[in-house]
């Protein structure tokens, strides 16, 4: 802390760091405050606004992205922690310009309504399939439980995930 004499208060020190991130296969070098979350780096510094800021407390799953192929809540992850790791957002899941099979299934099965939670839901669904935890509807519901949907489109999301697995698109690695 340092004193702000003009106001008689203390102001926290700001520590900048150069962070090299690889997001959706593209390297980026950012100069960030060490406290910047991955979510804020993605949205505010890289312009990737597909990842949503819901609760900003790790409770809703709207900010789910993949880091080295594992799902993480980007609102609880510091950008600096992701240096040297591969970050994938909803903008990076398409295959050769075509939507990812999970994206297609969400559209076909009405796995969204307002759409706000959809990017996080899709990122979790892809990870769930990659983790081979989509054996039954109960397993799908259990392992998707960290992603909340205010519209209640859960049955359609489960159907979409089941469809991707049953069609042999279970190897949904990005």
Specify the biggest β-sheet: 5 strands, mixed
Count of β-strands: 7
**Order of SSEs, N→C?**
EEEEHEEEHHHH
Terminal CA distance:
43 Å
Q: What topology, given as strand order, has the largest sheet?
A: 4-3-7-5-6
Overall mean confidence score, pLDDT: 92
CATH topology assignment of the largest domain: Ubiquitin-like (UB roll)
* Structural class determined from secondary elements: alpha+beta
Strand content: 15-25%
CATH architecture of the largest domain: Roll
- Which CATH class of the largest domain is shown? Alpha Beta
CATH homologous superfamily name of the largest domain? Answer: Beta-grasp domain
- Count of separate DSSP helical elements: 5
Q: What are the low-pLDDT stretches, counting only 5+ consecutive residues below 50?
A: none
Radius of gyration: 18 Å
Outline type = elongated
How many domain units?
2
Q: How much helix is in the residues?
A: 25-40%
Pfam families: Fer2 (PF00111), Fer2_2 (PF01799)
Domain 2Fe-2S ferredoxin-type: 17-93
Protein name: (2Fe-2S)-binding protein
Keywords: Iron, Metal-binding, Oxidoreductase
Q: Can you characterise this structure?
A:
By secondary structure, this protein is of the alpha+beta class. The chain has two domains: 83 residues, Beta-grasp domain (Ubiquitin-like (UB roll), Roll), CATH 3.10.20.30; 66 residues, DNA polymerase, domain 1, CATH 1.10.150. It is built from five helices and seven strands; from the N terminus they run ββββαβββαααα. The strands form two sheets. The protein has a five-stranded mixed sheet with strand order 4-3-7-5-6, sandwiched between helices. Strands 1-2 form a two-stranded antiparallel sheet. Helix 2 packs across helix 5. The chain is elongated, with a radius of gyration of 18 Å.
